[in-house]
Amino acid sequence: MGSEDSSEILHDFFPLMRVYKDGRVERFSGEEVVPADVDAETGVKCKDVEISPDPKVSARLYLPKGAGPGRKLPVLVYFHGGGFIVESAFSPTYMKHLCLVAAEANAVIVSVNYRLAPEHPLPAAYDDSWAALKWVAAHSTGGGDEEWLKECVDFDRVFLGGDSAGGTIAHSMAMRVGLEGLNGVKIDGVILNCPFFWGKDPIPVEGDDEGVSIFVENLWRFVNPKTTGLDDPQLCPDKDPEYAKLGCKRVLVYVAEQDPLRHRGRRYTAELAKQGWQGESEVVEAKGENHVFNLFTPTSDNAMAMVKKLATFFNPSSSIF
Fold first, then answer.
1. Which pTM value belongs to this model?
2. pLDDT reported for residue 207
3. Which residue, 155, 136, 156, 154, is CA-closest to 146?
């Protein structure tokens, strides 16, 4: 009887995770890690750093080939996806894509490793991400000891970005910068790749895919037990009365044609404009693709087109911005 009870599923978020009645957590993805090294194809150097020992916050840094003192580069502070419950900054899921972005955009990347639910429910991931962003900013005034940041970063060209739940975090960080400020840095832009946004009431173009809505609501309430629900401004940004204070001047949103979340990604920029945000925004749709396609096929035509688009976003002389 006890054995049967222990195998009973309490929360089922397959293909990401299952939680069993006995408290056991089984993750199906994002557990593998790859060591930091020099990427043979791009020449990008990688290393792992500790940001905080308690709570434990760390990051993987990416430095493009040829970077060095005297040549200041943009920096992307990146937040991985995984529904707040799987993946890490050290996963092979992210290594290839971020090396390609660092090389093409000639940018430094700080990929943040934050704590996951259910062991650490929200707001842990937001708190860790804010701590990481403050750690990056501290280097602008000599307060940090990471040489790659001190010697190579232009702190007037700081970008926030993330995929899926990481896009949700990137938005939250930009809102916090807009409301509280962040000394020593200027957030030039935000990049949201297939962001994890939803809301209580379906928007007309979403149709009636009840299965998606149930999955999103169950996952959101699981990772964020104190949430007010699907209209929580962290999940549904246009419900935030301070939305127009988003702390950057440019936004780039990527959506995928076959992703159920694509309509919320499009809505994000439209609602920003309606609520009076004064920046510039663009939505790019990847035809024929599904959620965070670029991470699974990082050298495909659409994924490489994204890499090139990000490069122009970081270095806007050749872009629309």
1. 0.96
2. 67
3. 136
